[in-house]
Amino acid sequence: MQIAEEAVQGAANAMQSAKRVLVVSHIRPDGDAIGSLLGLGLALEAAGKQVQMVSEDGVPAGCRRLEGAGRVLHRPEGEFDLVCVVDCSDLERTGSTLLGRGQPDLNIDHHVTNLLFARHNLVEAGAVATAEIIFDLLPAFQLSLSTPVASALLTGLITDTIGFRTSNMTPRAMRLAATLMEAGADLPQLYLDALAHRSYAAVRLWGAGLSRVEQQDGLVWTVLTLQDRQATRYPGRDDADLINILGAVDGAEIAIIFLEQPDGRVKVSWRARPGLDVSQLAVRFGGGGHPAAAGAEIKGSLSDVEKMILEQTRPLLEINGGNRVQQ
Ligand code: AMP
Ligand code: MN
Ligand code: MN
User: Fold this and answer.
1) Cα 325 to ligand 3 centroid, rounded to whole Å
2) Longest dimension (CA), the chain
3) Does the predicted model carry a pTM greater than 0.90?
4) CA 126 to chain centroid
5) 110: exposed, middle or buried (C-beta count within 10 Å: 0-12, 13-18, 19+)?
6) 3-class DSSP state of 39
7) Residues lining ligand 1, judged by CB closer than 6 Å?
8) CB 101 within 8 A of CB 83
């Protein structure tokens, strides 16, 4: 682990003296958000802490069979000695959960764009998932790796690497997966739950997005409207991972989804092939992420944001050259 020893010690000391701990993750949660939330939360509970685990947008279907998923709250209740934010590069990613609660104590994350917003920042951009960092912190925090903790952490690892195939995969992450399996995590089942199984509504949402997919000069993109969500009865506020399908299109150097939001904003998701970096582009629009996967929420109409973002993304391809897709 690259995180400075003093930062880990400072965080461990703060954790040790805390009795009531709040663990929070990000809006529109993915498997790493929930896996990290439950992995840390359940391990702290087993160590005798009073723990609240909060995800403003609840738990996505692929994570609902994880132990503790049913106890995740939409908002915190009461007071806490220690607040720990996981898998968030900035505080806005926690939604409204921490409004009025001051500076969080711990920030455990793997985004290169992390703003180091907490008292103790345990940020390691080389980790494939926040779940990997939480595993590394277990000994320092004097926490144990039970089967439910291992299952939650393996879900984070599987989902953020899209089944161990993203360009940031490391031998270390493969070894960690094996260690988590040895601790009792059921890899095939977790993989099916979190990555393979899809609801009928999710597949219909894909259909709406795929029916108007466009491709030009190495860019592949589509839009998802509020009307699509209504028509398909998709319950989430996310893209049902359609972005990963666009990113797999032959010749897609950068894939983008524009997701209309009810508050006059558009959620933009980028996926880039290895060698390109979309994280700084996302930062420019108030978002963040990783070189190969980033996102931002931008004010404006769907068509205005689509036009503007396509314009702002194209120069990345020009700078980097590479094989363009022919129309
Ligand atoms: P997404 O496109 O939502 O699947 O996210 C891709 C990556 O970018 C993930 O690591 C997210 O945590 C990050 N990300 C997405 N949206 C934002 C945002 N508005 N601000 C900061 N990071 C984001
Ligand atoms: Mn995440
Ligand atoms: Mn993550």
Assistant:
1) 30
2) 61
3) yes
4) 15
5) buried
6) helix
7) 89-90, 93, 111, 243, 269, 287-290, 293-297
8) yes
